[in-house]
Amino acid sequence: MTPMVVFLVWLVIGLLVVFVYAWMAVSTRGAAGEEAAYQALGRLRRPLFILMLVVLGILFAFTIPRTPYPKGQIPDEVVHAVGKQFQFALSAQPIRNDEEFIRASATPLKISRGRLVEFRVTSLDVNHAFAVYDPDGELLGQTQAMPGYVNRLLLRFDKPGNYTVLCLEYCGLSHHIMRIGFEVAEPSPATSRLSNLASRR
Amino acid sequence: MAEMTIGGAQEFAGEQARMRALALVWGALLMLLLPILGLLGLFMRAYQSQILAEAAPDVSWFYASLTLHGLGLVGVSYTVSFIGMLYVLSQHVRLNTRVLWLSTGLTVVGVVLLVINFLLRFAPGWYFLYPLPFISAGGWASVTADIFLVALAVLGVAWLLWELELIRAIASRYPLAQALGWHYLKGNPSPELPPVVLVATVCAIAGVIALLAAVAMLIFFLVHRFTGSMVDPLVVKNLTFFFGHVLINLAMYHGIGFLYALFPIYSGHAWKTAVPMVIAWNCVLFLVMFAYFHHLYMDFAQPGWVQVVGQIASYGTAIPAAVVTILGTLAQVYRRPVRWTLASSLLFLGTMGWAIGGVGAVLDSTIAINFRFHNTLWVAAHFHTYLLVGLVFLMLGFVAHLTQELSGVPERVGLARAIVASLLLGGYGFVLMFYLSGVHAVPRRYALYPFELEIGTTLAKVALLFVLLVVLGVLLYLIEVGRRWFAAYAALRAS
Amino acid sequence: MVRRICCIACFLIGVLWSGRGQVAWQDPRLPDEGAVLYRSLPNVPVYLSGGRVAQLSEFWEARPMLLVFVFSRCAGICSPLLQSLRKTSASVGGVGDAYQIVVLSFDPRDTPEQLLKRFEASSDMPAHPGWYYGTVAPKHLRQLMDATGFWYTPIANTDQYDHPGMIVAVRQGRIVRVHVGGSVSPAQLRALLREMRGDPVRSYPLPDANLAFRCYRYDPLTGEVRWDWGMLALFAPPLVGFPLALLSFQLGRRKRLHTASDVCASP
Asked: Can you give the CATH number for the domain in which B309 is found?
């Protein structure tokens, strides 16, 4: 479900709720207070319960197989992503300390289009979040960057262009400027070692 | 009911008077704190809209405001709704108001400490996710983290005290099985259990558990503080969200507790405990313990089964809300000669906000959807919906009812309608901007939005217009209900 | 004249071509796991003892595999590495069921029987189930070395080679871990096996931190996951809260039984 579809679902149900409430409120004008009306609504309890069970059950069955958690799929490459107040560093090599972080931050990352990339995300200090936005500003996916834990985020990049990573977990006064970019390019010998690897496969 | 001795009746009357006084004080606190904390919210949206331009203060004020606004309103929501629930519960059980006054005093102390911290620009956010309070990258003084820990401890003690007092009060009148309505499940509706007793029992048990989680969380913070040893951040995160999630849900349930008791006064139809209500609230007591996992969906290190349980529990809590409370509220209204006043309108519309916010919450509590919505403004959208146009409406409705009941001052109908209209239009317009921002993946808790997400700035500007409507509504409310409050206070003193 | 030149050229090309297997990759660095992670292994034929030939993919399709490069005349790291791996895999368990070990020689002089004789008791078959010894053609060896980062250099005036000790963990034909060293501990082997299973360890010890109160502690030596105090902290609130509520109601029950009159008026 795209974000807009989710919004429309919320909007439709929300408007339905507003309509029902408005109708109920209007029904009080000149009302006599019939017990039958009260009972009638009470009889809706069971159908409403069943309807909710069915709708939520379908939503559950449809969405659980689509969770973003690693399911044993093997990616094409790995990128180590580390957050530290208030920067990110991306590298094909592990980033374990400040020195490696500084070295990695200085090297821009390029990924070949079409690759399934596994981001191994962690933090060197506080809780951050690693959220990847595509060139059109659409949020592709995210995971938390936690000190002492590595979260593996798998994303496939089908669209070439400049991608942005924003921190999505409040981490301090410069939280809103914590970001990094990387490029997704068509596979060619001119791109990174990772791209060269693709041509061998 | 058993007869009361004359002494007992006098004692009861005294307790009721003390309860009314306590409720009035909390009504005043709501009318004082809600606007102040709300204005911090207005400041934040103004900051994000960039209309302040060169006049914008240092960004530390934004994040300090975010921290106080969040902590303050969660605290106000929990406490005021709790007192509202106790107010109606006091008709059925004897509460020791001394304990409640003590907790009130301690809460005020805690709030003062938080305000001091705000002035010192303590800004770990209102989630205060460990270890951020201690590792600020120079953002705030380390002493503020200590003050914060003291404030947490004071508030924790205050609220644990009155939750335990609530349990004691209910337990002195009802056995546990009866207080949870289990006799209804056996087909025996006698003795009749007032719905507020059922709700209060569930809330009290869950409240004690949530506060014990806060104790554990605080201990971990103190271990870090005094030993320098890093505690597992994922454990603390689990405890923080368990405590926070249960607390804010309890705030909503407290509101439902007094809704069950107060709304029938206006609808003229009793709201009685029945089997569906008993099943619903007993399920809620269980489900609310597990729903908090939805805050950790993006922590992929959490076990997979825990994430699925979180989604099931989150979906599960929506069902009792809809089939018992929402449907029950509508049944109270449908074709009934409801006496529409400021209080009854706000109580009625508060449940609508809860329903609409709940839809947004259920959607966001779906893991696959949360992957794209987590920590975007969609999150702020749904909880502002069921708080601002949900629980806040309920609390404002309670205070309007309380002051009216105690003062007997006639309502100014036109002003009441203007209040409801402003709050309704302003509130829903305001949250709609959050929803739209969330759809465009605008992050939450950003002082300023990046150029790629300029739509966030535009929507913040539009939101400001709606916030101003809310401000107008609140001002009018203060005028109307403030007038009643002073009259109620005078009447209470005279009696 | 032209014919002579062509013959010399062909001879030289032939020498160079056949000699490629003898020419080592002159990369003196230790293998870099990060550089080879998730690379595909080439599906090359492996020559086993008794004249059998199997494609390398037959091994990794059956179950995850560990790949080790050695040579039979090795006077250095090969024997200690294999002995360490044998001992550790025996203690950890699962060889032959959960995973298998493929030992390949990079010495073109080696035969599978010579490998077996050197590293196992018999020259006919491995004494340890789940272990396979084989050789590959020089051109396929180069492909494997390119994919894994393995290298070797002949040591002048000896029949020895300089090379790293490494164990490559392979799942579904892709490299998921590379262990470099002359031995492998149970903790290290378990980490390789977890990665091969697709169930990596998600936490790591923070430097300069003594993480207290974890939910669970993963013991790399035994592979056991034990609950830690953090789990108690998570469960303590409901475990304490519910009994506390029950106790309160019990105390209240006693008080109700002793109370002479009902003190609440009817609403």
From this structure: 1.20.210.10
